[in-house]
Write a structure and sequence with these properties.
This protein is of the alpha/beta class and about 450 residues long. The protein has three domains: about 5-160, Alpha-D-Glucose-1,6-Bisphosphate, subunit A, domain 3 (Alpha-D-Glucose-1,6-Bisphosphate, Chain A, domain 3, 3-Layer(aba) Sandwich), CATH 3.40.120; about 175-375, Alpha-D-Glucose-1,6-Bisphosphate, Chain A, domain 3 (3-Layer(aba) Sandwich), CATH 3.40.120.10; about 380-454, 2-Layer Sandwich (TATA-Binding Protein), CATH 3.30.310.50. Helix content is about 35%, strand content about 20%. It is globular and about 70 Å long.
Amino acid sequence: MTSRNLFGTDGIRGKANVYPMTGDVAFVLGRAVTEYFKSRQIHTKRPLIIVGKDTRLSCYMLEQAFSAGVCSQGGEVILTGPLPTPGVAFVTKSMRADAGIMISASHNPYFDNGIKIFDAYGLKLPDEVELELEEMILSPEKIPVMTNGDLGNAKRLREVFGRYIVHCKSGLDERFDMTNLRVVLDCANGASYKVAPMMFNELGAEVFAIGVDPNGININGECGSLFPQKAMEEVRNRRADIGVCLDGDADRVMIIDEHGNLVEGDVLIGCFAKLLLDQGILKKGDTVVGTVMTNLGLENYLKKLGLNLHRTKVGDRYIIEYMEANNCILGGEPSGHVIFRQKSTTGDGALAALKMVECMKFYDKKISELTHDIALYPHVLKNTLINEKIPFEDIPPLQAILRKVEKKLGAKGRVVLRYSGTEPKIRVMVEGEDQVLVEESCEQIFEVVKNELS
């Protein structure tokens, strides 16, 4: 298959108002998406497309440009305003729309933006469909022009928050609520700044919310899942039972225990696997889905539970593709994307937080007690900006150091080297039983990477 140039791991992403994240591209993408789904309509005469966004300043520009493209191609647009990515996926399916669009760069800084696309079932598009759309974007003259009464229209949907809140709340076992629970909630000044506090309040929690004052440029700014330090301190100060840190589009979460300590994403997945197993939802021999970045410690823990681990490429869409094809129930990434396939078609930070509360209630234990038995291998992850994404096999010094490190680590460790699908970065991850060896190995590889690629 021809490689994609505009689409990365999670849609199209880049610096706002710089190609490809320009109003011009968004307009043509709106046309392309509408034209593509015209022949695949399920319920409507005109393609119905849901358009959500986070709180970045550039979302206004891209939202209007994309919507104009849809209308020019004869589609109907429903604008949700700021709404988490999983909310857009849910509303798309709930309203029987033909496609859903989320304008967000997730955890990236405010000056970046992106566009994610969902089909009628709330699933992210496969690579081959993104390639078709890319070909239309690059050759817009091939898209037929609509005129007169064939043009479309747009409107705003006001009751969307309620739909999504009811959906998420239904993911918490009906025997439990959050009465008498003290919760520190960091919404990253992003898409969940309204909906997440409403959700936790309705469930009876005493909520201490931070990161709920977006101004267009403070999304993910020293807050949220990438910068949980403020929330960790707040948990200690408030003597809270749990801290919840969402990212800019709320499709990932970081959990903080009652002592103010951060719980890693793979540990969360281990907790959820045990919960679902003890509830009879998972069975011995079932498979939990992770990625190449999933820690060996989680894999070992799952084996002790009688469960298997399957690794996919990085990106929650690859996880859900495997889950859909193989009828798997639970999947996730160390970054905090967690997918409960029975409830969601993408990572959902708020839903994962509610399931963590369910763990606490089900076992009648504090978070530190729930996570105590899940021992991850020591690991180091380093990133650096690069000038060009050169195939690793074409870099002899890199191949040499990889062979040397992998020989030292043996069967008790591993190296993962990958280019970011959303940024001009390379990521070096080393894990193993020996912390010192892991740190030394990562530093050795990282120095070669910087010399050869930066």
